[in-house]
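Quick check before the chapter quiz. The format below is the same one you will see on the exam, so make sure you can read both the input and the output lines.
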Amino acid sequence: MGRSIIKTVKLSKWYGNIIGINDINLKIGRGMYGLLGVNGSGKSTFIKIATGLMRQSRGDMVVLDEDPWDNPKLRLRIGYCPEGFGLYDEFTGEEFLMRKALLRGYSLNEARMVAKEFIKKVGLQEAAGRKIKGYSRGMRQRIKFAHAIMFEPELLILDEPFNGTDPFARIHLMDLIREMVKKGVNVLFASHILFEVEELTENVIVFHRGSLVAEGRIWEIRSLLDSVPLKIFFRTKNPHQVSSDLLNLPEVEGVFKHPEGLVAHVRKPFEFYPKLQKYVVEEKPPIEEFYPLDESLENLFGYLLRGVGM
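Here is the expected output.
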């Protein structure tokens, strides 16, 4: 199985009286792992400790055989794509990547070249000279991702990397992640979307309300999840067409109006999501983004907790 990339023993983090994560004992090996959980489940807390941005309250974590806290040398070995963006709105996309390269010791010409290379890699050439404050949410995700991969990291840590991306950008970023794994990069990515985890890796870690509730191969827990109804939001300017198309899929029980689009009630999400991706790629429907609603995911993980006897 090889050495652990990330190992924790009784890892806990409290925010006053609020528990962020509690007694996490975990070994993450080489390859790609998906960290699955709803908002507030503890995924981001775990990731911030792993990247050295936060110190745990109790317990231990080792990342690439080192303590991540206050460890600038380790940070140079990690590519990190945070959920939020930071204070770079006045830079253009190209300036942002150039400045990051200059901080790594690149010359001005080298920094310009590597910035252009990775702008192209994430498909933002047309927006390279625009200020980031004018970027859409999905474009911000792509420029953060470009920064995360541009220095050949040993470990790539991604916190909700596909939030706000349109379906085609999501597919493109997934392909780039697979490319990194083929090059030997280890990947841990957090998501609250079942399809994203199954599409990228069979290795899944499930957090719920600060606790580790399941880990292993995706098929070991999917039978618990397949029968749970899931509410999926679709942002679209043509709800009539999208609603009609979705209702042709046997997993869709119903489609309902939402102030900003549609909500589909879906069963067997692991069967539904591959069909949805095929529909998006082949039919190119007017879907701007889609994601499960946390309300239904809370029900789903409550069912999972009962299923594993917790």
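If your answer matched, good. The radius of gyration is 20 Å.
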